Structure formats: structure tokens, C-alpha cells
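Quick one, probably user error.
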């Protein structure tokens, strides 16, 4: 891991001095006694942020899964439509008529200052902590009915087109429009929202819950709405679409490629539309994301005693099946650096670089004040409904192994061999008798590929992040090989099947196997048995489970994508180790040299050595600490002494996606809102509560990702309770809301009882054995380290495998030939 350059600075400067070691010791020992003696202060939540969240345990919760920005969220107070000092709007109720696109029934309230009985937090010591002003809303008696007419909406559309200089992009009728196209139409819809919000002085509640109710099919904006978010006809088939269309027959666009992330809690945008989250105390910007990283998420090496880094990489691999927010790219489909653009005097509308504090311990010595950051591309809700900024997921939402095949027909076509049901591979090591590599990315060789030697290429796969870190490249390679292994076996059993049938059936089996491994091996370790049982995300030992629910939105939530499932960043190991087939250590390289630089696998035999590393290297443990290999050296070009800071990016991403803070999520999960820093002391590891008190103004300001990874682990789990709750809810939705889930019965997609029994034999260790070149022994549960008693190494041949004979058909009748007695 090497020594950290994020060790607390002893230089005495205003903001860093607060966290210098001496200062810390002094303050900590002075303030702990006052913690123990002071009364627990009572703080009511900030009114501008005061929402009535629905928790997973609430009876109405089901309905929140119906779509983002559902009208179920009640905002208790909102900005004044007249901008007068204290006259506000209570939540409006909404109706429509033939002339009125939206009728707002408004009730005015006046916010009277509450009598504060609170004593200052950490009384007498940390007097710097400020409190948000407290108000009690009292109705003024004034009510108003406001009609936004269709003609008003039409005028707003024309105004928005003019402001944006809008020209309709080509390709809106495609079910697979590309992010730059969606971006143009989505920004137009946002502009319409802005125009209406200003004209009618809409409150955040009205923007969030009212505007989406406008029927745009009665306006000209409908012509600008891309086809993939409009209703389409569906038929029931055995195989999934690549985009996820028609998985949900009731709402065919749920869970579809290029549709927005779902909200479990309403967004917290400072302006109600798209402004970054701000402090609840005074509306000022939150502390620099870089400052939070350098204060809380330093590099401390703490290897886990049980888990291997395979569990970390599997988490990332599964994430790459589920989520990818669209980053903006340049005209050559390449990444660009906002800081470099600004140095050259140009800009991009989605550029929003992170400002680095003057006394930053990593970047300041190099005179760097600007850290690259771009907002994610905006997207459309179903039917292009108006409302606050939404961000698109460029992947299909179910666990469907799309990291092998892609989330669009176009990408699948690029990756398929169209022969024998196979995927394209690169037989580079034929001469050595070694298994193939992924196909090389030769069309756009510099895309997300760093320091490429002229004769070598990065790789292509179903997910564009295949080269992000070397172990992902390894997993992608193993899974493409496994697809081809299964397709080849099916072809031998069913010579009458054509390419399409072989490909689709192998794909169907692969998706089922990935679902099973995730439920059987990954989630119980991640969440602990109590949580997986509570959320019913366990494997059913025998038979089918028919609890499909078409009302469950399968789409990944913002909280999951932007924070909770980034839990994995704390498990990243700073060194990439290699082991031989006897599990002996061979050597290691710093991770940053293997990010977007997968060239090591061009050496014959290295693939197996890296697999050896995956199953033998301990993961880092769950704590607030992040290896500097990614929190300062992420994608570091060879000629530079530093790279990007992934932790800072995570925080900034949450803010730009309008993600409510950590405390709001604690409440949503039923864990109770921390009322003071003191409440957080037993909840967070080490001295994180204290460090937070030095950089944030209020517990409500803490960013979700930061608070989540700092929590004390749940017993028997890898992570803390807030992330566990968000992730468990997500996987519950993914399981119940997927019509193609592997243990459903009675559908064309269902496996026979025998086939299902075989699928349930899938184990990660066997997949590694089958697809590595020569790994003869392995521990059965590869996400845990080998142990002579609890997880001994066994011969690969002793591990169970799927018996594909249960897929063999009579070529004449199509009937399956094998039945279990
Ligand atoms: C060496 C390992 C890893 C690297 C280099 C890496 C890097 C990155 C980067 C650059 C992003 C984009 C951040 C942004 O712009 O918002 C990202 C996003 C993300 N990462 Fe990681 N990551 C790693 C491991 C993991 C692991 C182990 C997990 C989970 C177990 C994970 C989960 C996520 C998730 C959920 C996202 C959001 C993806 C999206 O929807 O766009 N990552 N990661």
C-alpha cells in the first residue's frame, strides 16, 4: 500500500489545522467529557429539506417503487411563490382539466420562528457548529387555485427551444438513441421546466410532484420525446431484450437502457430543479469534496482477515451489469478534462470541476486547484414527463449478464460471432494452447485506454468499463469464455439449433447463473443472513418462487448507484498480486498502473496468475479509508505525478444528482436521524463523527457515500446498516420486479424443474476452474480466503457443474430428452 500522502498534515493553516494531529488530540480529549455530560440536543430538521420520507417498512412504500418522482412525497414547506419573507406554500394538490394542463390548489402558510430550547451542540466547546433556523408553519387562511393551461405549456416549449437554440436531433425514433441525442431533448425538457417554474413561481413540491402530471402528448414537446420512453407494444418471449424493453409488460420502459435512475427519496436540489445540494444551515455550498476526502477518507492499509478481492471485483462486475450513468464525451466519443478545457479558454455545459482547497495535501504542492468533474447526462422519465433533473442509466436494469452481451442490439451485434451461438474472442495464444482473450478495441483504440503501446489494444466487452481495472478485464474474459463453453456444449447436444437459438439459450443460462451466484455467494456475505432473510433475497433451495410483481420498479435507485453500491471503493486493494497454480505468491504491481492499462494479459500465462491473485489476495476491510491508488492516482497518466480522486468524485456525484444527505437515508431506513454529532459517535467508526464536526456545519449536511462507508459494520455483514438497507431494497426490487428471474415458473422464459436444479449448482469457483487455463485446485467459496477447515481447497473436478444434458431436445418433436426420475 505504501505510505499515505493523506496522513494528516501538521502544517498550520486555517482549515487543515483543525484536523492536525496535535489539534485533534487536544480537541478530542477536551471534547469527549463534554460529550458525555452535555444534554442531547433536540434538533428539528431543516424546513427547506423537510420531506416526509417513506421507509421500506411503511405500508405505502410499495408505491414509491412505481417510478421516480412519484407524487407520494410530501414537501412540508416550500419557497414562497411571491418571494416574501415568510409566506410559503404548503404542499399543493393537483388536478387537470381539458384546458388546464395542471391545476394547482395552493394553501399558504406563514413560518413562525420556533421557540428554541436547544443547547448548542458540544456546549461550550465546538461553538462553531451552527443550527438551521427553526420554523413552525401556520396556515394563513389564504388559498389559491392556479391553472397552467396547455397554451402556457406550449409557449414555454417555444421559449425553451429559443433559449437553447434547439434543433431536433436525428434518431429520436430509435429504441436505442445515444446519450448525446437524449441529452439534447432532456435539456430541452428541463428548460421547459425552468420556464414554467419561473413564470408560475412554482415551489420545489410543485416542480417535483405537479409538473410530471402534465400530459405532454397534447403538446409539441411530444415530437421531441425519444421513442424509448414512450409506450411500445410487447409480446411475451422466452428471451429478454437487450435493452430491457418489455420485461415489465405493464410499463414496458421500466428498467430500460437510457432511462433515469429511480428515486426512493425526492431529490434535494438547491433550486428545486438541478442545483447542487447545499448546507441546511445557511444554504452555503457544502465543504469541498476534496477536503472531505483528505480529512476522512485517507489511505490506511487494513486488510480483511476473511474476504478475498474477488468479492470486491464481483461487486463491481455486478454493478456493471446494473448501472452506468452517462458521462458526456467529445465529438470523437473520447473523455475530456474540464480543467484542461478551461486552461485553453473553452468550456462544456456539463463541466463543473471540483475546486481544490489551497492547502490540499495532495494537489497543492503541484499548484493544482482544479479537479476534473462533469455532470452526468440528463435523461427523460417515462413519457418525457417534466420535473427536476433526472440522470440516465445507460444499462438495462435487470441482472441479465449484459456485461457479456451489451445493453443494446447494436452492441450485441458488434460482440457476437454469429456462428454456433458464440461471442467474438481473440485467439491470440492459440500457439501456446491457451484460451482466448477478449476482442481488441481497434475501432476507437484510445477510448478509455491509457498509455497504450502502439502494437497493443484495450479490449471490448458488453460493458464499456471492461478495462477500468485489470481484475474486471479478467472477469469479463472468464465470462465470455464461459458463454462460449456453454454455447459449444449446447451445439453438441442440439446440432439442429441455429446460431440464434444457441446464442440466446446460452445467454439465458449465463444470466440465470449470474443471478444465482449473486444471491447465493455474494449477498449473504455483503448484507449478512439477517438482512437477506428480511428482504427475501435468499436462494430458495428447491423449486420455483412465483412472487413476480409488475408494480415493482426494477430500476436502480440514485441512492444505490451514486452512493450505496460504491461501498466497494473501500475494499479496493492498492497492490495487484499474482499467484501461481499452487497458490504461491509471484509478484505484485501498484493498482494505478493497471487502471485502463490491461496490457499485462498480453503475456502468456499472466491471465491465470491474475486469477490466482483474485482468489488469494485479501480485500481491504470496510472502513472510511480509501487506497490512494484510486483517491489521488485514479487513471494517472504516466507523465503525471497524480491522477483523480475517486472519493471526491463520489461525493460530488451525489451532490449533483440531488441525493439527500446521509442523515435523511438513516431516517428512511428506520435507523433514526442523528440529531447531533454526539449521536453519530457510536454509529461511525474511529473518530469520524469528530472529523465531520470539523468540516460539515450540521449532521444533515453529511454526504451519503461518506457517512455510509464510515459506519460500524452490521454483525455478520460486510457493511453498515444504512448501505445494507438501500442495497437490500434494491436487490429485492431486482428480484421481484424481473419477469425473467431465474426461478419463475409458467412463463416461456421459465426453466424446467431439472434445468432449474442444474442452474442452482452454479458456483463461482467452478466457473473459474472451467475457464482458466490451468488452475487445478481452488477453495469452493472463492469470495472468502481459503481455510484448511472452513473453506479448504479442493480439486476443480470435485466441484459441481451444470449438466447441460437437461437442455437436449428431440430434433423432431422439440421435447426434452432427459427427465430426472
Ligand atoms: C479498482 C477498482 C475500481 C475503480 C478503479 C473504480 C472506478 C470508478 C469510477 C471512475 C467510477 C465513476 C465515478 C463517477 O464519475 O461518478 C465508478 C463508479 C462506480 N463504482 Fe467503482 N471503481 C472500482 C471498484 C468498484 C467496486 C468494487 C464497486 C462495488 C462493489 C464499485 C461500484 C461503483 C458504482 C456503483 C459506481 C457508479 C457507476 C455508474 O452507475 O455510473 N466500484 N467507479
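Nope, works fine. Designed sequence:
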Amino acid at each position: 500500500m505504501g505510505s499515505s500522502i493523506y496522513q494528516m498534515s501538521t502544517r498550520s493553516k486555517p482549515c487543515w489545522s483543525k484536523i492536525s494531529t496535535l489539534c485533534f488530540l487536544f480537541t478530542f480529549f477536551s471534547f469527549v467529557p463534554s460529550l458525555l455530560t452535555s444534554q442531547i440536543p433536540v434538533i428539528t430538521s431543516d424546513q427547506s429539506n423537510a420531506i416526509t420520507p417513506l421507509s421500506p417498512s411503511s405500508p405505502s412504500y410499495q408505491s414509491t417503487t412505481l417510478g421516480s418522482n412519484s407524487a407520494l412525497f410530501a414537501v412540508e414547506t416550500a419557497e414562497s411563490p411571491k418571494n416574501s419573507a415568510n409566506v410559503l406554500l404548503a404542499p399543493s394538490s393537483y388536478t387537470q382539466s381539458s384546458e388546464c394542463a395542471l391545476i394547482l390548489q395552493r394553501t399558504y402558510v406563514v413560518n413562525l420562528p420556533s421557540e428554541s430550547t436547544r443547547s448548542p451542540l458540544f456546549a461550550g466547546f465546538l461553538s462553531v457548529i451552527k443550527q438551521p433556523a427553526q420554523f413552525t408553519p401556520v396556515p394563513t387562511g389564504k388559498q389559491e387555485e392556479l391553472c397552467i393551461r396547455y397554451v402556457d405549456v406550449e409557449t414555454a416549449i417555444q421559449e425553451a427551444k429559443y433559449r437553447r437554440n434547439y434543433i431536433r436531433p436525428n434518431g429520436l425514433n430509435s429504441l436505442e438513441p445515444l446519450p448525446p441525442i437524449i441529452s439534447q431533448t432532456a435539456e430541452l425538457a428541463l428548460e421547459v421546466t425552468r420556464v414554467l417554474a419561473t413564470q408560475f413561481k412554482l415551489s420545489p413540491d410543485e416542480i417535483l410532484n405537479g409538473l410530471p402530471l402534465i400530459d405532454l402528448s397534447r403538446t409539441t414537446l411530444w415530437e421531441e420525446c425519444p421513442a424509448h420512453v414512450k409506450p411500445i407494444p410487447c409480446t411475451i418471449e422466452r428471451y429478454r431484450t437487450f435493452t430491457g424493453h418489455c420485461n415489465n409488460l405493464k410499463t414496458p420502459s421500466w428498467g430500460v437502457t437510457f432511462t433515469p435512475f429511480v428515486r426512493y427519496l425526492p431529490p434535494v436540489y438547491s433550486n428545486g430543479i438541478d442545483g447542487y445540494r447545499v448546507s441546511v444551515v445557511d444554504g452555503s455550498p457544502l465543504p469541498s469534496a476534496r477536503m472531505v476526502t483528505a480529512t476522512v477518507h485517507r489511505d490506511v492499509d487494513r486488510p480483511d482477515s476473511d474476504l478475498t478481492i474477488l468479492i470486491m471485483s464481483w461487486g463491481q462486475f455486478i454493478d456493471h451489469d446494473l448501472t452506468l450513468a452517462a458521462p458526456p464525451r467529445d465529438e470523437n466519443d473520447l473523455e475530456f478534462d474540464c480543467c484542461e478545457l478551461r486552461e485553453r479558454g473553452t468550456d462544456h455545459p456539463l463541466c463543473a470541476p471540483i475546486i481544490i482547497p489551497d492547502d490540499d495535501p495532495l494537489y497543492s504542492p503541484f499548484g493544482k486547484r482544479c479537479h476534473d468533474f462533469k455532470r452526468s447526462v440528463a435523461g427523460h422519465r417515462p413519457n418525457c414527463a417534466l420535473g427536476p433533473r433526472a440522470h440516465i442509466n445507460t444499462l438495462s436494469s435487470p441482472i441479465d449478464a449484459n456485461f457479456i452481451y451489451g445493453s443494446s442490439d447494436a452492441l450485441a451485434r458488434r460482440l457476437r460471432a454469429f456462428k454456433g451461438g458464440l461471442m467474438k474472442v481473440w485467439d491470440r495464444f492459440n500457439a501456446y494452447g491457451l484460451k482466448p482473450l477478449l476482442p481488441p478495441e481497434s475501432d476507437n483504440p484510445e477510448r478509455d485506454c491509457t498509455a497504450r503501446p502502439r502494437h497493443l489494444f484495450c479490449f471490448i466487452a458488453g460493458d464499456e468499463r471492461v478495462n477500468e481495472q485489470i481484475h474486471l478485464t479478467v472477469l469479463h474474459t472468464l465470462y465470455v469464455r464461459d458463454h462460449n463453453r456453454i454455447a459449444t456444449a449446447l451445439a453438441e447436444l442440439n446440432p439442429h439449433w441455429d446460431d440464434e437459438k444457441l446464442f440466446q439459450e446460452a445467454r439465458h443460462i449465463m444470466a440465470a447463473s449470474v443471478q444465482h451466484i449473486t444471491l447465493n455467494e455474494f449477498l449473504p456475505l455483503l448484507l449478512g443472513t439477517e438482512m437477506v432473510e428480511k428482504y427475501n433475497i435468499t436462494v430458495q433451495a428447491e423449486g420455483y418462487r412465483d412472487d413476480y410483481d409488475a408494480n415493482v420498479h426494477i430500476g436502480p435507485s440514485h441512492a444505490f448507484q451514486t452512493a450505496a453500491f460504491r461501498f466497494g471503493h473501500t475494499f479496493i486493494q492498492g497492490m495487484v498480486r499474482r499467484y501461481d497454480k499452487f497458490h504461491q505468491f509471484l509478484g505484485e504491481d501498484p493498482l494505478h498502473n493497471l487502471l485502463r492499462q490491461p496490457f499485462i494479459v498480453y503475456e502468456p500465462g499472466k491471465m491465470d496468475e491474475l486469477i490466482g491473485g483474485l482468489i488469494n489476495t485479501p480485500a481491504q476491510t470496510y472502513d472510511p479509508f480509501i487506497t490512494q491508488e484510486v483517491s489521488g492516482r485514479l487513471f494517472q497518466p504516466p507523465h503525471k505525478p497524480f491522477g483523480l480522486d475517486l472519493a471526491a468524485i463520489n461525493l460530488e456525484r451525489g451532490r449533483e444528482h440531488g441525493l439527500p444527505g446521509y442523515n435523511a437515508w438513516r431516517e428512511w431506513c428506520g435507523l433514526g436521524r442523528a440529531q447531533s454529532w454526539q449521536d453519530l459517535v457510536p454509529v461511525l467508526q474511529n473518530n469520524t463523527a469528530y472529523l465531520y464536526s470539523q468540516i460539515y456545519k450540521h449532521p444533515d449536511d453529511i454526504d451519503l457515500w461518506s457517512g455510509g462507508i464510515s459506519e460500524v459494520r452490521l454483525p455478520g455483514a460486510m457493511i453498515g446498516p444504512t448501505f445494507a438497507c438501500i442495497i437490500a431494497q434494491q436487490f429485492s426490487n431486482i428480484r421481484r420486479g424481473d419477469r425473467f428471474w431465474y426461478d419463475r415458473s409458467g412463463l416461456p422464459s421459465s426453466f424446467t424443474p431439472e434445468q432449474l436444479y442444474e442452474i442452482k449448482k452454479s458456483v463461482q469457483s467452478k466457473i473459474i476452474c472451467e475457464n482458466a487455463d490451468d488452475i487445478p485446485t481452488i477453495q469452493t467459496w472463492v469470495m472468502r480466503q481459503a481455510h484448511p477447515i472452513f473453506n479448504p481447497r479442493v480439486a476443480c473436478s470435485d466441484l459441481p457443474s451444470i449438466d447441460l444434458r437437461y437442455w437436449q431436445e428431440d430434433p423432431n418433436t422439440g421435447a426434452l430428452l432427459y427427465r430426472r426420475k
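Confidence is low (pLDDT under 50) at residues 1-85, 116-128.
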